[in-house]
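Student: I would love a firmer grasp of how sequence relates to backbone shape in proteins. Thank you; the sequence and its tokens follow:
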Amino acid sequence: MGAQVDELVETLRQSLAAEGLDAPLKFDLGPDGVVWINGSEVCRKDAPADTVLTTTTEVLAAICAGRTDPAQAYYQGRLHLSGSQNHAMQLSLLLDAAHGKTRRISRFSSQDDSRDVAEALNAAGAAIVENCASDALADRVAQELRPHFDAVGDAYYADFEGYKTLRLSEILARSRASAELIGDAFTLGVVDQILLPHCINYRIGSCTGIEILPGEAAQVLHRDDGIYPLSIQGMELQVSAMWALDDFTAENGATHVLPGSHHGPPRSVSTRTEHTVQAVMAKGSLLLYLGSVLHGGGANNSDAPRMGLINTYSLGWLRQEENHYLAIPREVADSYPERIRQLMGYEPHGPILGTYPGKY
């Protein structure tokens, strides 16, 4: 095995020649010894390291050749991690780059098969559906939200939310046109494939208007499903839908997404944005991403605000993030079509969970 390990050392050295790791990392290969990496230096000496990946020579060879994803090896129990999860992710991204692979967000249209979009979501954790809504609909939603942004949009100023970002809740009480986005048939067709294998029905977890103003800094990367104190491998708790009510550009704060991060340890949170992809998209386009994917609003370095509407769809047996029964007056809720009322939560999950003897 010594000769094979020497070959892997040389492969890693070439892969990391252009950009090295931020801190020492080593692979513990058991009886075959260790591979130690510090910056762009790769060798077989056993020295201290901030992060230790314990695996076999065969698994390391598959990783170096691009045949095995480190995250998959981790969840399959073929690779064990001690130390920094972000550090291990950095190595994975550098190896991807060395193999000519880039972590992209696939782009679709609403004329594509929703199964293809769901497949892209499961693979990368995010997908963009371009021009999913008309400019006219996006403008109507923005116009209906405008006075509310101006009146109360600064109520959520905080370190996480930002101090130059306006936010609104109670969206269905503020914008009737927003129901056309929330209940969009193509979007729900994609969400069906992600969530319905794990529930009888799903509902809106939250619905938030977000306007990032000029001068806002980038938001810390986070996971939307972090509100729930559990994670179940292979089961997504939420799908998030970010609608562009303006053009989203790299300059005005298009959402940052870390593709593949849904394969990472479920409750880790990273502040690193070096390897993210920005969801640059035109007005009326839709960014779909899994609740377990690291993401965050971008910095607005332009001279104009950018507005979006983000709603999450969560498993029907979970508590909703926003209490729509109280946030939306009952007479307003009753005025919406049945599908929207169901998504708000006016539907039991199965025969007994959430039942009420009156009218739903």
Summary: The mean pLDDT is 89. The longest helix spans residues 135-152. The radius of gyration is 23 Å.
